[in-house]
Amino acid sequence: MSDTFDVIVIGAGPAGYVAAIRAAQLGLKTAVVDAFVGKDGKQALGGTCLNIGCIPSKALLDSSKQFHNLTHNFALHGITADNPKIDIPTFTGRKDKIVKQFTGGVALLFKANKITSFFGKGKLLKGNQVEVTGNDGTKQTIAATNVILASGSVPIELPFAKFDGKHIVDNAGALDFSEVPKRLGVIGAGVIGLELGSVWKRLGSEVTIIEALPEFLAAADTDIAKTAAREFAKQGLDIKLNAKLSKAEIKGDEVHLTYNSEKDGEQSLVVDKLLVAVGRRAYTDGLLADDTGVKVDERGRIVVDEHCHTGVDGVWAIGDAVRGPMLAHKGSEEGVAVAELIAGKPGHVNLDMVPWVIYTEPEISWVGKTEKQLKDEGVPYKTGSFPFAANGRAVAMNEGVGMVKVIAHAETDRILGVHMVGPVVSELIHEAVVAMEFKGSSEDLARIVHAHPALSEVVHEAALAVDKRAIHKSN
Ligand SMILES: Cc1cc2nc3c(=O)[nH]c(=O)nc-3n(C[C@H](O)[C@H](O)[C@H](O)COP(=O)(O)OP(=O)(O)OC[C@H]3O[C@@H](n4cnc5c(N)ncnc54)[C@H](O)[C@@H]3O)c2cc1C
Q1: Active site residue 452
Q2: Which residues have a Cβ under 8 Å from the Cβ of 1 and sit 6 or more positions away?
Q3: Which terminal Cβ of the chain has fewer Cβ within 10 Å, N or C?
Q4: Measured CA angle at 41 (ends 40, 47), to 5 deg
Q5: Exposed, middle or buried by CB within 10 Å (0-12, 13-18, 19+), for 378?
Q6: E strands, 193-338, where?
Q7: Which atom of ligand 1 lies at the shortest distance from residue 11's CA?
Q8: Alpha-carbon span 462 to 404, nearest angstrom
Q9: How far apart are CA 24 and CA 473, in angstroms?
């Protein structure tokens, strides 16, 4: 045995690296084991989120939005450019630089917090020991009073559309096409499919999204999903619902798809690239020795209680590897909570108050319950909504599309859910999160002074609309 720590974290994604930093801040001797290999063949901290998820996708979304504005929207402002072009190596290269900046930033934070970093695959052994296998096969065993499992998730592969990294790709592949695919097929109209489909659509791909579910964005509030579907259709994103892929054959440089559509029967489609984005599964391959006592459920997720404890003394699990939404910020907050619990402080994450964001155009965000959930639960509610089309700032930005909807309890007026589709709602949602965390009412939001002209006035007016007193629309 070479080293003993207070805390060992396996996995340096947003759940694990945040847990490690907080543990170190609290004076605990902390180590992190992570196996992620960056494009340069060296260790790259930050997990899926920083390397091949949240950050690179947002970089490409932003660049593609600039190009789309130049080719479609700037003329409205009187700005024109002759023959605008996009250079794909520069486009993806900018993203790579941003990734490197942030993964390098985590390494610097580890150093500043005196966290010991091991590069290799970690396996939990009985008695809170961790076997670390380096890329060269060398093994060492370290031990700690507490081990936090933060091994994250990986894309689900379809048996009849296996990733080949060139024609049929996962999220990582779709971040790095060397040219704009003329025809891009996407399987799955979830967050990743919609975001990466939008990126390449804006650069000129013909994008067809095939979704097995009959309803578009079933997790979102119906009004929001309907508005978003209308806008995506206007943008030319072809979303086929109730359609199940059955075959994907690579023929030369094309992928030939067969899918069954509830409406049209068996259909075929030929694309140049296929992104399979049908969801992610908790990743625990090789993570647990047989005798650790840590359990996994039927979906392969590590079983934990509400405090992220596995039931095995000193073993915790957080992030995508456990129940709850697969979102970076959810994992990070669990990391903080667990570090604080280990240090003897109170730590807690309210899973009911985790905001969701989809970074399409328009953006989509929500927190709390949808109308459908409340109906199913028999909770009496009232709603108020307000369109961005009636907001001066949104119209001045040429982004007067979408709405904010506030749902409050019919009797107590406590806010139960806030749903948004429109410009920059990834930021606006946090006003709702704060109000709801403080158990606020729609009246509370309605009485807060909002700056004018600001997009957040739409949140204000939606809250006023709950009581039928929005000022800038007829109630
Ligand atoms: C394209 C895309 C876009 C996304 N966009 C967003 C977004 O905008 N907002 C958002 O909130 N979420 C987003 N997500 C989801 C987000 O990336 C995940 O929820 C988040 O990364 C989960 O964090 P984690 O720390 O649990 O796991 P991960 O980030 O998956 O990190 C786990 C780490 O553990 C390592 N590891 C696993 N097993 C071992 C082992 N045995 N030994 C050593 N190391 C191991 C892995 O190599 C990895 O580095 C996106 C995901 C994708 C794919």
Answers
A1: yes
A2: 129, 141, 142, 143
A3: N
A4: 90
A5: exposed
A6: 206-210, 238-240, 243-251, 254-261, 265-271, 273-276, 280-282, 315-317
A7: 34
A8: 6
A9: 52
Ligand 1: residue of 151, 338, 433 to mutate (most ligand atoms within 8 A of CB) is 151
User: Cα separation of 49 and 281, whole Å?
Assistant: 15
Per-residue pLDDT of the chain in tens (475 residues, 90 and over written 9): 458 999 999 999 999 999 999 999 999 999 999 999 999 999 999 999 999 999 999 999 999 999 999 999 999 999 999 999 999 999 999 999 999 999 999 999 999 999 999 999 999 999 999 999 998 899 999 999 999 999 999 999 999 999 999 999 999 999 999 999 999 999 999 999 999 999 999 999 999 999 999 999 999 999 999 999 999 999 999 999 999 999 999 999 999 999 999 989 999 999 999 999 999 999 999 999 999 999 999 999 999 999 999 999 999 999 999 999 999 999 999 999 999 999 999 999 999 999 999 999 999 999 999 999 999 999 999 999 999 999 999 999 999 999 999 999 999 999 999 999 999 999 999 999 999 999 999 999 999 999 999 999 999 999 999 999 999 999 8
C-beta contacts of 258-264 below 8 A and 24+ residues apart: 259/210, 262/214
Report the predicted TM-score, pTM, of the whole model to 2 decimal places. 0.97
Cα of 48 from ligand 1 centre, angstroms: 3
Report the candidate in 100, 140, 116, 103 with the shortest Cα–Cα distance to residue 20: 116
Q: Is the CB of 275 under 6 A from ligand 1?
A: no
Cα of 376 from ligand 1 centre, angstroms: 32
If we measure between CA atoms, which residue out of 265, 31, 303, 25 comes closest to residue 145?
A: 31
For ligand 1, atom 32: residue with the closest CA: 152
Ligand 1 proximity of 121 Cβ (cutoff 6 Å): yes
Q: Ligand 1 centroid to 139 CA: how many Å?
A: 25
Q: Say whether 254 sits in a helix, a strand or coil.
A: strand
- Tell me the best of 34, 48, 316 to mutate to test the pocket of ligand 1, counting ligand atoms within 8 Å of each CB and taking the most: 48
Q: How far is the CA of 82 from the centre of ligand 1 (A)?
A: 41
Residue 115 in contact with ligand 1 by CB distance below 6 A: no
330 lines ligand 1 (CB under 6 A): no
User: Is the beta carbon of 436 within 6 A of some atom in ligand 1?
Assistant: no
Query: What tokens appear for 434 in the block?
Result: 């704060």
Which ligand 1 atom lies nearest to the CA of residue 33? 43
Choice among 329, 452, 460, 472 that is catalytic: 452
